[in-house]
Design a protein that fits this description.
This protein has helices at 14-25, 41-45, 47-65, 79-90, 93-103, 155-158, 175-186, 206-218, 313-329, 357-362, 378-381, 411-424, 428-432, 445-450, and strands at 2-10, 30-34, 107-110, 113-115, 120-123, 126-135, 139-141, 167-171, 190-194, 221-224, 227-235, 238-245, 248-254, 256-259, 263-265, 284-285, 298-300, 305-306, 342-344, 349-354, 368-373, 389-395, 400-408. Helix 3 (47-65) crosses helix 7 (175-186). It is 31% helix and 26% strand. The strands form 6 sheets. Strands 1, 2, 3, 4, 5, 6 and 17 form a 7-stranded mixed β-sheet that branches.
């Protein structure tokens, strides 16, 4: 079958779904294609199910911290029940997503999409011509070229395990490994994280990550830093990981090895046939309007677009708005990525937005850096939290916050306040005069600001 559309969208995740519906709302004929179940990674195989599972680890952490402080009794994570609960969120998504598209008059296609010209895609026996085509195909685990790479499971496999193995190796120290390591350790597994760098979670503040690592080590996570994974092989019922540290060989064994060594743009659409140029990281090379630099009929959004922005869900949402504006109304809105808050859902959580301490050291203007451990503050003492702190980067000349970094059980919600202050360039003196409900985590903001300029050894 051959058919022509005003807009064809490849991918049904955060960016793709938003673009698909917005274009249809504008009266355009729209087709949407996905080679996997409709709904994308975040709600099915990423952010949302991960947070459901991590919630159980947080509960276990609460229980252990508060033992002898008002909580008593034994409890453990029932992995199979937890997975069943998780599936109540994920399983309805594909059918609900496709049903919504169809109700709006959007044509849905399942299968691999391949370019056959600048404006045409082939999906199975269907040849689809698009006046405009949007690539929103997301990212996939990075291909490493290691021997035995196929023996490692990926994050989505971990999120669907029927049973949790007794011993797990997480290769890499990014979001995926650190979040799942927190969960697995709390669920009773022996956990090892092998990371080639000096510290995991490299995009986050180093001082806070050090505190986090210390806490995770107390809960049973074992870190092997400056160590590179070289190969994986089967060994009986388990696996052997060969690694290297300081030119010396090391060997690890486990029941399961998880790929946490990074993700890369997923572009199995034969970009060359569509006159699509890729960037250095393998994403679609786009201009400031998120339009392909070599094929003006094509736009890209989210993790598959090489924009320099971090691969986060809020970025995909922003990209979707930009693409809709520029695709439907002419290139008029360039990309402008404001500081975007990010959270690693470890136990405890770590959050970040804006400039880092390293950025402050390299800046061509004077910036103040304030770092404090705050486990002795009431917010954390009342729940006996063992790791909590903050780092603020401030501009004394402008009197504003330019960076904020948090560690603690409330870091995920609290970082959003700082993101707002940075985005609006709210004066510090104005923030000090804001009223927050007490006692809440937000009511600590004034105390954090009061520490600016109070040097401590």
């Amino acid at each position: 079958m051959k058919k022509t559309y005003d807009v064809i969208v490849v991918g049904t995740g955060t960016a793709g779904s938003s673009i698909t519906q917005a274009c249809r709302d504008e009266g355009k004929t729209v087709a949407v294609i996905d080679r996997r179940t409709f709904g994308g990674t975040c709600p099915q195989r990423g952010c949302d199910p991960k947070k459901v599972l991590v919630g159980a680890a947080e509960w276990m952490d609460w229980k252990e911290r508060m033992a002898g402080r008002g909580l008593a009794g034994n409890a453990e994570i029932d992995w199979q029940e937890l997975m069943a609960f998780k599936r109540t969120f994920t399983e309805p998504i594909p059918e609900a997503t496709e049903k919504k598209f169809s109700s709006l008059g959007i044509d849905c296609y399942h299968g691999d999409a391949k370019f056959i010209s600048d404006t045409k895609l082939k999906v199975g026996d269907n040849e689809l011509n698009g006046r405009k085509i949007v690539l929103a195909t997301g990212a996939a685990p990075m291909k490493l070229g290691l021997d035995g790479e196929d023996l490692m499971i990926h994050s989505e496999d971990f999120l669907d395990l029927d049973e949790l193995p007794k011993k797990i190796i997480f290769a890499g120290g990014g979001y995926i490994s650190m979040e799942f390591a927190s969960l697995a350790a709390r669920a009773g597994s022996e956990v090892h994280v092998i990371h080639r760098g000096e510290r995991p979670l490299e995009p986050f503040d180093g001082d806070l990550v050090d505190l986090l690592m210390k806490r995770l080590e107390e809960t049973g996570v074992r870190f092997h830093l400056n160590t590179s994974v070289k190969s994986v092989e089967r060994s009986g019922d388990g696996f052997t990981v060969s690694a290297e540290k300081d030119d010396s060989a090391e060997t690890f064994t486990a029941d399961l090895v998880v790929h946490g060594l990074g993700r890369a743009p997923s572009l199995d659409v034969d970009p060359k046939a569509g006159n699509i140029k890729l960037g250095d990281k393998g994403g679609v090379k786009v201009n400031e309007y998120l339009q392909s630099v070599t094929n003006p009929n094509v736009y890209a959004a989210g993790d598959c677009a090489e924009t320099g922005a971090p691969p986060l869900t809020p970025v995909s949402s922003d990209d979707a708005e930009l693409v809709v504006q520029n695709l439907l109304h002419g290139n008029s809105r360039p990309a402008d990525y404001a500081p975007i808050p990010s959270v690693a859902f470890t136990v405890p959580k770590v959050g970040s937005v804006g400039m880092t301490g390293e950025d402050a050291e390299k800046a061509d203007r004077k910036l103040d850096v304030t770092f404090r451990e705050i486990t002795d503050w009431f917010t954390f003492r009342r729940t006996n939290e063992q790791a909590a702190g903050f780092k603020l980067i401030t501009d004394p000349e402008k009197g504003t916050i330019v960076g904020a970094h948090l560690l603690g059980g409330n870091a995920d919600e609290l970082i959003n306040h700082f993101s707002t202050f940075i985005h609006l360039e709210t004066p510090i003196e104005t923030i000090k005069n804001l009223e927050f409900a007490y006692p809440t985590a937000a009511s600590d903001i004034g105390s954090m600001l009061a520490e600016i300029g109070n040097e401590k050894d």
